[in-house]
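Narrative of activities, Objective 1.

The group set out to show that a structural description can be obtained from nothing but a protein's sequence at a throughput compatible with the screening campaign. Below is one input-output pair from the validation batch, recorded exactly as produced.
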Amino acid sequence: MATTSKNILDSLPDPVIVVDNKRVVIQANLAALELMPGDTIGRDLAHSLRHPLALELVDTVIKGGTVELEDPESLVEIEYITPLRRSFSLHIVQALSDRDNEEMQIVIFLRETTADKRAEQMRVDFVTNVSHELRSPLSALVGFIETLQDAAKDDREAQQRFLEIMSREAGRMSRLVEDLLSLSSVEMNEHVRPRDSVEITKIVNSVIESLSVRAAEKSLELKLETEELLPPVVGDSDQLTQVVQNLIDNAIKYGGHDSTIEIKVDTTERVPQTGGPGLKISVRDFGDGIPEEQITRLTERFYRIDKARSRNLGGTGLGLAIVKHIMNRHRGNLEIQSTEGEGSTFSIFLPVKTGQNPSGGA
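Output recorded for this entry:
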């Protein structure tokens, strides 16, 4: 029976701990042992669970008291910091009596709330960031409208200057709203994998053609290198167009003047997300590069390395977040490599259509 009980506990995904009437841990499942520091079995619960309120509730049960599961005071939120920050709500399930030893045993478990906490924090950050991003251009528009209606109503030169600024701020709001809607749409369908067959070279060529004028304005050459007979990928054509456009557009914004943007499309034996063959599309610029400690944050919503510069260049801080979520939907991957002073390379990996091999055959 003891072995069966241990197997059942170990099969549970949440940490479960059993203590005796002296608050000594007599059993813990694998999830709990992986979470708790050092030796847990045979030691006081306080060694593994350093939370005064939680220990107080356990002591209450040991002394014959009861803890109502519906009582908010019986739900304790605790955190374990290492190796990663994880959040749990601790519940005292019930008190059991060991008939053989006639001793009380208390069963407690920790329900992980890390994902819930992160989601809530993301929601708060998202609302805060959107409010901030919209407040600035709206304040500018309101201010200039008031000036045009009053002090500058007869000043043609001021009117022209203010209208240009208003147009720029309105465009910034429009791009932000468009990116927000796009991100919302991508996240809504992120769990639904696309099934269409897409010729990626057609998409890349189309995007290059549409952005060539903007690149020429900065004296940038868009240079494409691609293998012949590339197999189709499994994807959503519109979303993949958006991904390629975002990556090349970023390279144009942040690439150095009078330089080249290298775009390369080739086969790869392994897509990190699926482990199977696929295509790799890389966009390399020769701009200022990105500090290593900031690379991992680039796909966060509204994260910008240089906020003022990004806004001046028309960035919303959502482009790479959109790319990341589109890649998630396609079971693909985004990889960022950069060296300060030398430039950056943004690469996406996409699985090829089932039944195709990298050489393009069936």
